[in-house]
Design goal:
Elements lengths: L9 E5 L5 H5 L4 E7 L2 H10 L4 E3 L16 E4 L22 H14 L6 E6 L10 H12 L3 E8 L9 E8 L6 E2 L9 H8 L3 H5 L3 E2 L26 H8 L4 H12 L4 E12 L2 E9 L18 E6 L2 E6 L2 H7 L12 H9 L4 H17 L7
Parallel strand pairs: 1-2, 1-4, 2-3, 4-5
Antiparallel strand pairs: 5-7, 6-7, 8-9, 10-11, 10-12, 12-13
């Protein structure tokens, strides 16, 4: 279902990438977007109409932001707060871009155009980065600006065959966003509850346990989104053998069991560095649960995922394609990807899954926005 209004509330999309958040913001009209990356900016323009500012958010002024936005969305860089990164926190160069965004929100506030809804999307590592202080600092800044603030941990696996937990900090001011009396699974996870408990008293006083209904059971599996076997670029025997040699004994046993089952079994696989007997070892890890692992950017090659198919005693392997990654992010077939595979995989690995944003928009953000009274339902 898509909720529509005759006059759509305006949204701003910062750190927009290829514009996946904007595609998911059902019922909103994205009137302005920003990204510093030239490749991502080209992808945004190829798939969206509207105004895009290509450049550093720190260089933006309120005068360059049009209209009277109802919502500002910021998928700020995650590398320095990711559980997979060095955990430098919001003080680091990339994740510190959040403060460039927040400075702009304060400038809009000074003109009486501050958005009543702000959403920050990031990795769940933000909940514990800096000993929890990074998350607390973001929430405190919003609370001091008069917002009610709360957080939801939402995994794309509830909608798509990809394990992709992400954090959504939602702040509202002057709106009647739906709330609960306390935390409720699945979106108020143990990690969110622990982060809430670490907040100072003033920030906890501004906290909201946002209400969002869980979706119906997902009925898509990884195999449903893959290209046909006969058109795929499969590895040769030597390359397949070399890849599978990286599997640990446990994962190799799982693969052999799948191959001997007589059924067609499809696995997502990815290389990870593990510590074994005190030394770092690169391992190929496979999952046969119908889910892909979390898509990441392909820097260095180790984060590229593989497709492993066991059927009739035969095992074949290949790389996951950028188009398949786009499907795993909930994009339609007519979404225009960059020309190179690596660029397409980078675009998807840095993005937010469209159905997750759509669920948040339709279930919480848009009903609150329509309650402003400025928009006809």
């Amino acid at each position: 279902m898509t909720i529509r209004s005759r006059t759509a509330p305006e949204a701003l999309e910062f750190f927009a990438g290829g514009g996946l958040a904007g595609l998911g913001l059902s019922g909103f009209e994205v009137t302005f977007a920003n990204d510093i990356d030239a490749m991502k900016a080209r992808a945004w323009r190829a798939n969206h109409s509207g105004r895009l500012h290509e450049g550093d958010v720190w260089g933006l002024t309120a005068a360059e932001v049009p209209g009277r936005p109802t919502l500002a969305w910021a998928s700020s860089p995650c590398q320095d707060v990711s559980l997979a990164g060095a955990r430098a926190g919001l003080g680091a160069r990339r994740s510190g871009a959040f403060w460039g965004f927040w400075r702009l929100m304060q400038a809009l506030d000074a003109e009486g155009r501050g958005p009543p809804i702000v959403v920050i999307e990031n990795v769940v590592g933000l909940l514990t980065s800096g000993g929890g202080e990074d998350f607390a600092t973001v929430c405190r800044a919003m609370a001091e600006a008069g917002y009610r603030v709360g957080a939801l941990e939402m995994d794309a696996a509830l909608w798509l065959p990809q394990s992709r937990p992400r954090l959504f900090i939602v702040a509202m001011r002057g709106l009647g966003g739906a709330t609960l009396g306390g935390p409720v699974e699945p979106f108020h996870s143990a990690r969110v509850r622990a982060a809430h408990a670490r907040l100072d008293d003033a920030t906890r006083a501004a906290w909201a346990w946002w209400s969002l209904a869980a979706p119906a059971r997902r009925n898509l599996y990884l195999a449903d989104l893959l290209d046909a076997d006969d058109g795929a670029d499969w590895f040769g025997a030597d390359q397949t053998r070399a890849l599978l040699a990286l599997a640990s004994p446990l994962h190799r046993q799982r693969l052999d069991a799948a191959a001997s089952s007589g059924e067609r079994r499809v696995a997502a696989a990815y290389r990870r560095v593990r510590v074994e007997a005190g030394r770092k070892v690169q391992r190929l890890e496979m999952r046969f649960d119908g889910l892909a692992g979390c898509l990441r950017t392909p820097a260095g090659g180790s984060s590229r995922q593989y497709v492993i198919v066991a059927e009739g005693g035969r095992i074949r392997a290949r790389r996951l394609t950028a188009r398949e990654a786009a499907r795993l992010m909930g994009l339609p077939e007519d979404y225009r990807l960059p020309g190179s595979e690596n660029a397409g995989l980078k675009l998807m690995g840095d993005a937010v899954a469209v159905p997750v944003v759509r669920a948040l928009s339709e279930g919480l953000l848009l009903p609150a926005a329509l309650g402003l009274g400025r928009f006809a339902a």
